[in-house]
Amino acid sequence: MDIVKPIKEIFKAYDIRGKFPDEINRDVAYTIGKAYGTKLLSIGKNKCIVGYDNRESSIELSLSLSLGILSTGVDVINLGLVTTPMAIYSKEVLKIPSYVMVTASHNPKDDNGFKFSFDESGNVKGDDIDKFYNLVISGNFKEGMGKFSRYNVEKDYLELFRRGINLGDKKLKVVIDLANGTTSCIARELFEQFDIDLTIINEESDSSFPNHHPDPCVAANQKQLQDKVLELHADLGIGFDGDGDRCGIVDNLGHIIPTDIYMAIMCKDIILNNEDKRILYDVKCSNALKDEIVKWGGVPICYRTGASYTMAKVIDDNILFGGEYSGHVFFNDRIPVIGSGIYAGLRMVEVLSKTDKKLSDLVDSISKYYSTEEIKIHSPNDIKDRVIEDIKKYCINMRFNIDLTDGVKIIRPDSWALIRVSNTGPNITVRFEADTEDKLFLIKREFTNLVNYFNK
C-alpha cells in the first residue's frame, strides 16, 4: 500500500466519507490510518479500537486502516462487524477512548468512510477534522510496530440492554426493519431478550440494500415497515439505518412518527423520573417538543444541529436526554451515551408496555403544528456561507426576532423559519413551521424567495 493525498472533499463536518474506490480506497485508508496513529501518539495515546459495518468494502478498508495505524506503533483492538453504537460502547468496556468505525452510515451502497474519536472529547468534528486533514496530507507520520488483537463486544452489549430496559406488563406486537444493514448482526439477539411479539423484515445482511435505502428518516424507506405494521395489526414498527445509530418509528395506524415527536413522547418519562429536568434538542425540532417539555416541568435547551455536537453536549453537560430532528437521540439516564437506534426503539416499547394507550393516542395528545420536511436548496460551497450572512444582516435590519444558534431562525408568535448552511453538501437547508396550514404556506413562500434572492 502507498501513502497518498486524499481529496479534501471527503473530509466532512462530522466524519470522512466518499465513493469507493474512486475517493476512498485501501491506499487512502492506509494513509488515514498512519495519520490517525500519529495523532494519537502526539496526545499520549497508544491504543485504539477499530470496527466496521456490513458494506462490501468495509473489511478491506478496515484492514488497510489498521495496517496504517499499526505502522506508527499504536496498538489496534479489532471488533469485527459491529454497529456504530457497539463500537462506541466498546470504548466504555475497554477503557480506551480512541476508536475508528468504518462506515458510511445511511449513504448509498457505493460509499464508505470513517467516524472516529481521538480522546475522551468524543467524535471528531468541525475544525478538528480540518486539522486532521492537514496532518493526513502532510505525510509526516510516526514509525513503529503496534500490536493487533481482537475483542468481541456482543456479550457486554447484550448485558447493557438487559440492564437498561425495563418493560411493563403489556406485551407488544413489534415489527422491526433492519434494512439489510449492520443491525442484522445484533438486533434479533437484543430484542429477543425481552417478552415481545417480534417480527423482523429485511434481516439478511446485504450491503446492496436490495429492498430499500437504509435511511429511516426518508418516508419512502418506511413503506415496507408501514405495510407490515398494518398487515399484522402491530403496536408499532421500528426501522434502522445502515450503521444502527438512528431509528424511525411507525405507529399502530401506520403513520411515521418524526424524531422530534418521538422525543416529545419520550421526554415525559425522563422528566417525571429524574431530578434533572433538562432536555436537549436541535434548532430544527418542532415547537411541539418544547411545549411537551414545559408541560411536564422540564427545561428545554435548544442547540445546534449535528449528531456529534449533540452527543458531546449531552456528555459534557451531563444532560439525561437529547436528540436532533435527523434521527439521532442520546439517552444518558440509565446507560452510557452511545446513540443506539435499537436502544431508542426499545425505550419506546418500554413506554407503551406501561400504558393502555396506543402510540397513536400519545401522538394525538401532543400540540399540533404544521411543518415542512427539511428542504435543501442548492448553493455552491464557495457562496453558501455568504448567503447565510446576507440573510442574517437582512433579518437584523428588518428587526426580526431571530435565533442565531445555528444559521438564522426567524421566530414569530405563530410560526418560524430556519435557514442554515448544510454541513454535508453544497446546499442551504430550510425548514418551516406554523400553527395553521395557511400560515405555513405564507412563511415558506416568504423565506424561500428570500433565500433564492441572495443565492446568486
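the 2nd protein, sequnce then structure:
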Amino acid sequence: IAVNKPIDVNSIAGRNEPNEIVLLKMVEEIVGQKLYVVHRLDKQVSGVMVFAKTAASHKYLNDLFFQGKVTKQYLALVHGVLKSDEETIDKPIRECGSGRMAVDFRKGKPSLSICQVKKRYKQYTLVNIYPKTGRRHQIRVHLYSLGYPIVGDLQYGDKTQATKYPRLMLHSEKITFTGPNNQEITVSASTSELFNKVIQEIK
C-alpha cells in the first residue's frame, strides 16, 4: 500500500516524543490491519511511502531496496543556481552526532546521488534527485556539500535563512519497482499546496 506522506508526521514511532503523529499507525487504522515498514522519510519530508501488507511482500520489497532495484525520484528546491544540468554526487556519508550526518571521505559509507536540474530561477534551482544509496539525510547532505542547501532545511545550511520558509522543500515524488508478477509499478505523489505556494512566491 502506498501513501502520500504529509510533513510534520513521523514515518514510525520515535523516541518518546510527546503527542507525536505516526504515519504507520494512521494508515494501519485506515486499512484495519498490521502493516510492515519498508523504508522511511524524514519527518519534514513529504511524498510517496510504501508499506507492505504481508510478511512475504515485506521481504520481497526489502530485498529490492537492499539490492538497489528501486528507483526513487525526489523533488527539491535549493538555494543558488546550479550551473550544470546534471551532477553525480559520489561522496561517502557518516553520522557525526546530534542527529546530523556529514560527508567524510575517510570514515563515511559509500553514498551516491544523481541531481538533474528541472528549472532555474534567479536565486534558486528546482531539481530532481535520484538517490542510488539509502543513507540517512543523504539528499540533504549531498546538496549541502555542493553549496546548494535545500530551502527550509534547519539542520543543513543557514538556520536563520531556513526559518523564513514554512517547510523543508524536499518531496518524494515517485517510486518505481518491479512487482512480484514481473510488472513494473510506479507510484507518484503530487506536491502539497504549501510546497507549490513556496515555488510561486520565489518566482
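The two ends are 35 Å apart (CA to CA). The longest strand covers residues 71-79.
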